[in-house]
Amino acid sequence: MAKKKAALSSAVTPRPSPASPSANHDDYSDAFVKQALASVRVIAVVGASANWNRPSFFVIKYLQAKGYRMIPVNPKEAGSEILGEKVYASVSEIPHAVDMVDIFRNSQDAGPITDEAIAKGAKLVWMQIGVRNDAAAERAEAAGLTVVMNRCPKIEHSRLYGELSWGGFNSGVISSKRRKL
Amino acid sequence: MAENKMGFETRSIHAGAAPDPATGARSTPIYQTTSFVFDDADHAASLFNLQRPGFIYSRLANPTVAVLEERLASLENGIGATATSSGHAAQIVALFPLMSPGMEVVVANKLYGGSINQMRHSYKKFGWNANFVDPVKPENFSKAITDKTRAIFLENLANPGGIVVDLEAVAKIAKRAGVPLIVDNTMATPYLCRPLDWGADIVVHSTTKFISGNGSSIGGAVIDSGKFDWLKYKSKYPSLASPAPEYHGLTFAETFGPLGYTVYGHAVGLRDLGPCQSPMNAWITLQGVETLALRMERHCSNSLRVAQWLEKHPAVAWVSYAGLASSPFNKLMKKYMPKGGGAVFTFGVKGGYAAGVKVVEAVELFSHLANIGDTRSLIIHPASTTHRQLTPEQLVAAGAGPDVIRLSIGIESVEDIIGDLDQALRKAAGATKAKSKSKAK
Ligand SMILES: Cc1ncc(COP(=O)(O)O)c(C=O)c1O
Question: Does B48 touch chain A (CB under 8 A)?
């Protein structure tokens, strides 16, 4: 989790403006990730599984409990429900706005999904651990979106808000401030 | 603020600990409780399914113990840690996700004697085979690796002391073989050496020693780098890389990614083997680890002074301390632990077994006991105590010959440490001289 190179320049506030500098995708600052997670409410999960022991299901379940609305996207499950939310075949078929698109597909597939996210008007494109597509990220950032790659929003959320530490993990967070319950 | 940008001393004090959210208590509270209430049935289910972090029962995880775990993970530059009831328990919890009956671990033969016993004899009862090699030549590890090997295990600074292993070379061998390198960093501590930075995959500790530092609490820990790719070697590591039947087909390395090994350590290792660390011991250990850097600095400077002094002592035959320029391991020590050679080492007393026994009986400040890494200076004569069941040949091979005395140098005034050794060595020399005179008659 602790990346070697420090890049304080990446501590920018994600602004939906083409002028906003892109993040250093090798080393996001905690402030950047925190701000990204705080800037969204509705999250489309592309590659969502209906199987409870799959990573995508874990992410949906966890982020739902943290107050996010999680919209599953999976052509094979379209029309059914995952954790109380209707499943759509693609991001473009979701009939309402989404703030973030979380990609549980391989790096190549992340390209066209990112383009869909741009067309959908999302603010944030998130690629899971092991997923990275720099060309797609460049297109999204040029369109004013914020991009996070090769990270898990569940791990990042729990890391930054204290719960990951409960499992004995190195959160990388030091603060003398009292945490909110 | 990002902790990974803060210094070692800062993290020794702060990592993992924040003011208690409920009360604002600044020192970490001792959560002396067996169990934790669930909010509702769904919360309980999510916890048992490992979908949400949280506390169920203190055999699996406990908030005070978790602070120690995060502290140690941070100091070792790891991703996560599993605290255990002892250093020996840490060794088993570390290997448990990797081994199964018939599988092998290649182990350095320069280890704490108790670890050699555990691995040579008790591991057989699990069907685990430990193959011992001399770590002084790294290629010995690669020669011993077979298709059944699941890990390499060594002490980078070996107990009873003086031997430093070429970590980087062994890490390369492990990587080539596709097996994780596990390093017992008890003797060096993360203040002197961080094996994960040199390519090791997992670190184990007996926190009983320098980490807690005051000889009051037994404990251990397993720290994972999060870097070994279990899924790449799926057939070798089914516990982590195949669906786990006891968790309804969940695959730890997939669902938890780089956190999988540590999640397994708690959710299966501690759950089923049971060697959790108590909240009280974790809290005491946390008090110690805050001053690790200061203590190690003094442990090392005192040790160097004592070793240099012993080297010149007429009653001393030899001194084996990696911090001495005369040591064959001084070069490796300067590479891997430039801040010092640690505080545990051996020396040979002239006069053999009888003189060795006399020295440990004559000390007044040193404590004659079987531990290391205390603030107090400790002494033991392995041949007459910890290693007394071994044959004379085995004693020599284990670095515990009849004349060997092991010291663990404390942080008392160095003049007092030297003064005590001097009077004990004089008494021993006098006694053996008198004896040989009476024999000569
Ligand atoms: C290097 C080393 N590893 C492991 C252990 C075992 O630790 P514990 O006694 O905490 O079980 C010891 C104890 O002497 C040790 O010195």
Answer: no
B264 and B320 housed in the same domain: no
Q: Kind of pairing, strands B149-155 and B104-108?
A: parallel
Could you identify the atom of ligand 1 that is nearest to the CA of residue B187? 1
Decide if A165 and B16 are in contact by the 8 Å CB cutoff. Answer: yes
Q: Which residues contact B18 (CB under 8 A, 6 or more apart)?
A: A162, A175, A176, A177, A178, A179
State whether residue B10 sits within 8 Å of chain A by CB.
yes
Written as tens digits, the pLDDT of chain B (441 aa) is 444 579 999 999 999 999 999 999 999 999 999 999 999 999 999 999 898 899 999 999 999 999 999 999 999 999 999 999 999 999 999 999 999 999 999 999 999 888 999 999 999 999 999 999 999 999 999 999 999 999 999 999 998 778 999 999 999 999 999 999 999 999 999 999 999 999 999 999 999 999 999 999 999 999 999 999 999 999 999 999 999 998 889 999 999 999 999 999 999 999 999 999 999 999 999 999 999 999 999 999 999 999 999 999 999 999 999 999 999 999 999 999 999 999 999 999 999 999 999 999 999 999 999 999 999 999 999 888 887 777 888 788 777 889 999 999 999 999 999 999 999 999 998 876 665 555 444
- The ipTM estimated for the assembled molecules is 0.91
- Contact call for B18 and A167, based on CB within 8 A: no
Q: Kindly state whether residues B61 and B183 are assigned to the same domain.
A: yes
Protein fold of A40-160:
Rossmann fold (3.40.50)
CA of B207 to the centre of ligand 1 (A): 8
Q: Cβ of B13 under 8 Å from any chain A Cβ?
A: no
Alpha helices in B225-329 (DSSP H): 238-241, 252-255, 260-264, 279-289, 292-311
Question: Which domain CATH number covers B362?
Answer: 3.90.1150.10
Instruction: List the domain range (segments joined by +) for residue B179.
Output: 3-288
